[in-house]
Amino acid sequence: MKQLIECVPNFSEGRDPEVIRKITDRIQSVKGIRLLDVDMGYATHRTVVTFVGEPNAVLEAAFRAMQEAQLLIDMSIHKGEHPRFGATDVCPLIPLANISMEEVAALAHKLAQRVGQELDYPVYCYESAAKLPERKNLAFVRAGEYEGLPKKLKEQQPDFGPAEFRPRTGATAIGARDFLIAVNFNLNTTSTRLANSVAFDVREAGRVLREGNPITGKIINDENGEPKRILGTCKGTKAIGWYIDEYGIAQVSMNITDMKATPLHVAFEEIVKSAQSRGLRVTGTEIVGLVPLRVLRDAGRYFLHKQKRSSGIAEAELIKIAIKSMGLDDLKPFDPNKNIIEYLVKDEQGYAPLIKQTLENFADTTASEAPAPGGGSVAAYVGALGAALGTMVANLSAHKRGWEEQWQLFSEQAESGQDLVRHLCSLVDEDTLAFNGIMEAFKLPKNTPEETQIRKNAIQEATKNAIEVPLAVMKACLKTYPLLLEMAKNGNPNSASDAGVGALCATAALKGAFLNVRINAGSYTDKAFVQNLLAEAQIMLQSAENAEKEILAAVDKNIEA
């Protein structure tokens, strides 16, 4: 599954569209990058650019953007309302899909090192990429701003690059941070005062403690003369109440800066609780901008679990539950394809992805004269069907009358099954792409010894990928047997035969994938690699055959009973 990260560089230029166009052109010159937003601010003299892609592409695009900013922006004449200390002032990297914060922090260090070395100016790392505890806070890193840089560089060595003042470029803060969710909660009131009361209940900073009247009473200070506060219920959030004339309602406007501390659905529930205590009702939720897929998947699971329903259902159904539960379509339609980052950033393949085809079209495509899709893609899809059958039995078991006490156990099993279904479905297209990669490598020129070597290396690299994809299918299929065995033994007895069919699918898929491993391995020159791989595959084959026998025996026992 592809890793995705977001990059949100802030450039100290908000008044010359041509400068920003040249910078964004450099960003878009990197293959695989999707430019999502360009927000220019005249008063702040600052532009915020948002783009996404796979890690290496994002690092290259960010570097090119900073390189262009160094050429085009002169900090020695820059003035603006927003704090700043460099041409590229800040450049945060944000994990979106299938990548950890630790991995993104390492990528931030890699980018910072390259900028420091090749662009030859100071770079500080902040937030999750901070090398010193105090540098986690961007305000600390940027304290003194551009004008204070000469002094700062003497007192605080940059993490990368020279500790020397570059008048034209300044410095850059490169960091890793979590995604920020901007969200508004709609209330059935026009009162800004009531909306603010709800906001103060939930935001991390809470409200100032007062004597008597909580609004007009005298502020109570601590021993240091600072106002005492009643903290809110949602950590990692900021919120205020306001009235929106366009909609004729008041809203609680919130920024969730720490999704781990306060997921979206938790913030929603806390807003509902506070609103109800004041005689208000939350009528819906408005997400501003984009949201990662995992946010809505987690929300869908949460609301299903509240109903004691299995959450091991299709991704589209989870999203639908989240939309309806939080009223994301209250003010305007919520389109997952436009509002969910991973859906917005789709691969533009040279062919329609196989997994999106109808069953009939997939069969017709396979039966055509083209060599791909072939047995590898079919094996991956058959494996996905095997995992889907195990998932189906788990869902039916979770909702079986009289089995209510076991719903959570079956829901967890169904979720694991859904993960396998998604993974195997992704491998359907990966196998065809791997085959196409070999064909493209064979098309490379071989007119010179150098070209011949490049072509040979490309063919070997593509062949290795064509071995590893069906091997991944084998590994994924092997993971379906524990689920299928559990369903055959302890799942809904009326669906025992489905678990058996699932096991037969898994074994057929695993054996089919092994044939593809073998045929591609024959063309790979690293014989030690091939030997180890085939030995690993043989062990998986034996494990699969043993697991299938055990599952079918359990199915027979259930059917006979």
Task: Describe the fold and architecture.
The protein is an alpha+beta fold. The chain folds into three domains: 173 residues, Formiminotransferase-cyclodeaminase, Chain B, domain 1 (2-Layer Sandwich), CATH 3.30.990.10; 164 residues, Formiminotransferase, C-terminal subdomain (Alpha-Beta Plaits), CATH 3.30.70.670; 207 residues, Formiminotetrahydrofolate cyclodeaminase monomer, up-and-down helical bundle (Four Helix Bundle (Hemerythrin (Met), subunit A)). The protein is 52% helix and 14% strand. It is built from 18 helices and 13 strands. The strands form three sheets. Strands 1, 2, 3, 4, 5, 6 and 7 form a seven-stranded mixed sheet that branches. Helix 13 packs parallel to helix 15. The two termini are 42 Å apart. The model has no long low-confidence stretch (mean pLDDT 92).
